[in-house]
Amino acid sequence: MYRRMIINDLKKNSLVSAAACIFMAVSAAFIGLTVLLFANLLGSMDNLMKDAKTCDFLQMHSGGLDAEELKAFAASRDDVEDHLIADFLNIENSELFLNGTPLTDSTQDNGFCVQNENFDHMLGMDNEILFPEEGTVYVPVCYRSEYGIEEGQILRVRDVELTIAGFLRDSQMNSMMASSKRFLVSPQDYRKLEAYGTPEYLIEFRIKEGCSINSFATAYADAGLPCNGPTITAPLIRTMNALSDGLMILVILLVSVVILIISLICIRYIVLTGIEKDKKEAGMLKALGLSPRDIRKIYTLKYVLLSFTGGLAGAVAALLLSGPLGRQMRELYGPAQNTAGIVIVALIGILLTEGLILGFVKSYLKKNDRMTAVEAIRDNATDGRNKSDSFMRIFAVTVAAVFLMLVPLNMAGTVSSARFVRYMGIGQSEIRMDVRQCDNIAGVSKDIYEKALADERVDKCVLMQTESCRAVPENGEAVNLLAETGDHSVFPPEYVGGKAPEAAGEIALSSLLARDLSCETGDVIRLERNGQEEEYRVCGIYPDITNGGKTSKICGDPTAAGEDREIMWSILYVTLKEGEDTDAWISDCQSYCREYGNSVKITDIARYVDGTYGQTIKRIRLSALTSVLASCLILFVIVLLFVRLMIWQEKKDIALKKALGVSCVHIRAGYLKRALSHAAAGIAAGIVSGIVPGQMLVGLLLSSLGAAGFRFIIDGKTVFLLVPLITFAVAALGVRTGTREVGRLKIRL
User: Fold this and answer.
1) pTM value?
2) Are residues 364 and 432 in the same domain?
């Protein structure tokens, strides 16, 4: 009997049943997709780092070094498992051609290496250790799609041509957020290329399990070992690897939660619509002696069936969507090891989602228990307050839909904007010039700085020099940090607290570094620089997602420093006068910097941001598009359902109007006017919620990565024109489709 009644109900209310199934499927799909992508990301990264035997501590160094000194240091440490000194031959990008395309516009430091013996292996696409033959080269896999290269094509450096044998995964430099990329060649070819590049060393250590990497890093710095270059640790490597796709997953997670909330609201009114339409049938069943529990069981079994179907469809959709959304992840990091376990976890997430929905359905069905058989059979229409409530539901769901569209779109627009540099610890400039990997960084950067100041086309220019220091807070453990010295008033970053350093003895800290040091503005820390310890007062805190998010700024004149100062790198920021051609200036600057070889890299800021975060931006845009499509689908179905619910609640009034000669067109126009006025108000409220609470929510997620004080960079056309037009059109389509129910109602008073 139950089966027959359920089948008949599904046939009778096919549209409403399909809508409930769709919401269950969409909720399951997004929750399952979030779990699948997140678990695959963590699993594939762990698998890659395990197969490659990634180092725990990496010190990049340009210049001379004493291998025996490093060996003796490693032997003296109980926490060192293994160490190596890997060669890295840095090649000027203008001399590196991939299938005829120069890497001139690349923001990366590109170079060649040979396979390491003990750890830090370069892996192939099956995570196998690669050993290239003479005359061949393996290219970083991230360049395959960026430059459209294939196996068998030619890589050229001056007169040396190498055949691309395949692509490699580099567990330490896979992400575009890592500033360097390694090409793998044979030892014979490496020797041929040595004349065309600048040698650099990667000093790497594997730390025994359970030992502190920070303690080792402090001991390395205290020993005065080579450090002319950035220091990278395993947690930073993991963060850089995860950040690109991790931001996309954060967007999908946010969308999933909002969709689940919307689905719970929608399914509630789907249930109420069913109860409203089946009032008389329910009353007759009660009159025949069926208990409220038996009647509720019919509905419960129906929604269990819909939940099973929706959950299954959602699981299939999650698997299908994880393909294109996770393609870059699989290419960069390879497959996760425990695929079956990941699928099981995703299924558990889907089951919990469906269980939550069914729990709410059960609570909604209890509404029917309180209705007597006489009340149900009489089928009284609802009062005016409930009619008003129904239109407020359209307002609420429009707010949610606009919010769901705007948050991912605003995040994508913010990350792709040139002004996103303010979350990279720098201010807004046009051109960035990096001076690295030369014996006289201070002298070279000073020379370029003076030439830039003398150029009449330059409006503003500032020189920043970065050195490695040791900070000792008033209370806490000493840590190593990067200190940038210069005039920070020329291109100031955004400060979330305090101000830029303006005098000697003042220091500004990045938000993550301030958190690690447990410092706030006004606190005092001791800084060890060039063997001397000085006190600094924390004057400001700023966001920074570069260099692991742990940097600092000190006021000073970098040109006054001696050339023997231990500088890790220098950066010049330049803004040209209005009307000047940026590309022409960069070209002229590159010509007089050729005498310094490949130690000077010049790029405009927009290209620098795109080169660093281009892959991340593409992932976020893809997830934003998915969110917009899902929002439109949900909004259409919800508005349609709400309008149908209102029509069934007001069927006696509608029947009376039709009996008095009012046309269906006029009745439908009344619903359209009232519904769209609430939708328009919902759009306005949704814009506000997408900008203010949405910004706070995204900022809360990104603050853990160093982007404290996050603010959306608003695209006016998208926020105030495109999204409102799309939302209004979808709402109007939903209302017009839903009001067709008016024509189906028969005149029975």
Assistant:
1) 0.73
2) no
Residue 709 in any domain: the answer is no
**Structure tokens that stand for 695 in this block:** 């910004």
**pLDDT, tens digit, for every residue of 32-61?**
988 888 888 888 888 888 899 999 998 888
Token pair in block for residue 679: 């939708």
Residues 47 and 74 in one domain: no
Which residue from 447, 477, 479, 474 is spatially nearest to 463, judged by alpha carbons?
447
Residue 2 lies in a domain: yes
Q: HSE (CB half, 13 Å, CA atoms) of 587?
A: 5
Average pLDDT over residues 685-703: 81
Longest dimension (CA), the chain: 102
Choosing from 227, 257, 276, the residue where a domain stops is: 227
* Per-residue model confidence as pLDDT tens digits over 699-741: 776 666 656 667 787 888 889 999 999 999 999 998 888 888 7
Q: Do residues 187 and 278 both lie within one domain?
A: no
DSSP letter assigned to residue 339 = H
Residue pLDDT, tens place only, 471-498: 877 666 667 778 888 888 888 888 888 8
- Structure-model confidence comparison of residues 243 and 445, the more confident one: 445
Integer angstrom CA distances of residue 601 from 460, 605, 663: 19, 12, 73
Residue owning tokens 């059979």: 377
Do 259 and 194 belong to one domain?
no
**Distance between CA atoms of 589 and 642, rounded to whole angstroms?**
64
Say whether pLDDT at 748 is over 60: no
CB 333 within 8 A of CB 45: yes
Residues 168 and 37 in one domain: no
Residue-number span of the structural domain to which 159 is assigned: 63-227
- The reply to whether 321 and 433 lie within a common domain is no
Residues 153 and 83 in one domain: yes
* Residue 190 and residue 137 in contact, taking contact as beta carbons nearer than 8 Å: no
- Which amino acid is present at 515? R
Give the tens place of pLDDT for each residue, 145-170.
778 888 999 999 888 899 999 999 99
Order across the sheet with 231-233: list the strands. 101-102, 96-98, 154-157, 160-168, 136-140, 180-185, 109-113, 80-90, 198-207, 57-61, 231-233
What is the structure's pLDDT at 373? Answer: 47
Cα dihedral 217, 222, 224, 230 sign: positive
Mean pLDDT of 643-654: 77
Same domain (yes/no): 559, 442? yes
How many structural domains is the chain composed of?
Answer: 3
